[in-house]
Amino acid sequence: MLTQTSISAPATGPPPFTERRYVLTLIFVTSLFMLWGVGVTMGDILNKHFQEVLHVSKADSALVQLSIFGAYFVMGLPAGWFMKRFGYQKGVLLGLGLYAAGAFLMVPAATALSFGYLRIALFVLACGLATLEAVAHPFLDGLGNLHSSDRRINFAHAINGIGAVSGPLIGGYFVLRGTHATGDLTSVKVLYGLIGAVVGSIGLAFFFVKVPPLIDEPALGTAEDPTDLAADKKLFQHTHFVWACVAQLFNTAAQGGTWAYFINYGTDYMGLKPGPAIQGFWQAGTLFSRTVGLVPGLPHLANDVAAYFFSLSLVGMMLGRFLGTYLMKFIAPNRLLATVAVANIGMCLLVAQHWGWVSFGALIALNFFFSIMFPTIYSLGLKDLGRHKQLASSFIVMGVVGAALFPRFVMGPVADVSVAHAYYLPIICYVVVFLYGAKFYKVQRN
């Protein structure tokens, strides 16, 4: 059994990021974050494509998010039970298998031009994403000193940002570019067939990886270690974990809504003149965009160009996570979380005004500021849970259902009238995230 000294923080300086024996496993687990970054952000590209090819409304197209993020709610607990019984590695293989199966199912669904069948295929794919997410976070937690888990999780989510950036770029090129944006879903069939093949190949490779024993808090849930806070408390008696579930629900609601209508915002507003108060900003932005060839003669951004701006915003999210990983060596994660929540309240207020490039720049900046939110809420919620950690991970993953409900049922009806004004609504979500970072993150010691 591991001793307490084997997981305690060093006397001086930050704890090591990981250990040499975990490097290969860490590379594979971190790559999973990139894979589900592609899978999630691709859904936001499909929103606009389905509006045009299948003739669905903005609000109904958000059923794509309901299918993807609703799977997180359905699959969260089964994934936790599976990994608790069969281990992390088999949990990863299950997730990759479902991911690949869902991608391959997109091919016949696209052939049938059926919005319902497409959503079923996306649901299966997202069950794989949910399984990977439920398994990967506690898996990372055990791949090194437990006191450096915040940094490992934020670093992995920075790599997730590479996948998130790639999703809109790939989707914009294959799905929304030129004639691909009309007529049929041939490009969707080709794209998801390739994704299924890649994911299946990675799963086959991971099957042969030998995972070393982990540094894991469940080993502390024994009579020999009276310091284990989880030994005598039930999971939902840990208030910091309960509030992490709530904060994650609202955080993913804001994130899902921001992404779902990003391309609509670009195509609806960019190119229209704002009020006289910021004419100078608008003219400068228009001059720049025409100089670099982004909007050559178009009254609005084209679909694929808006998708590329979406990808640019996700570059900001990736950079924000790398920066956040570094800053957490000096700034408490909860304080950083509260700070970026306040910043995003300001960004939403700017976006809702639809002041041309000023507001569009704020929309792009939203991703930079909520970059650390998901991984930080996750890592704070898993603190000191000992034997409850795997099940707790599943419940926090279930909070992703916020991204399924908020775009369709809260932002959707407003977006059908005014996409810009729909961005007032995520402010409520960021207030909740701020409260968690400022107060409710604290582990109760009694």
Automatic annotation (TrEMBL):
The chain crosses the membrane at residues 22-41, 62-81, 93-113, 120-140, 155-176, 188-209, 305-324, 336-355, 361-380, 392-410, 422-441. InterPro entries: MFS, MFS_trans_sf, MFS_TsgA-like. It is found in: Cell inner membrane. Keywords: Cell membrane, Membrane, Transmembrane, Transmembrane helix. SUPFAM superfamilies: MFS general substrate transporter. One of its GO terms (cellular component) is plasma membrane. It is a multi-pass membrane protein. Pfam families: MFS_1. The keyword Cell membrane applies. GO terms for molecular function: transmembrane transporter activity. This is MFS transporter. It comes from Hymenobacter ginkgonis.
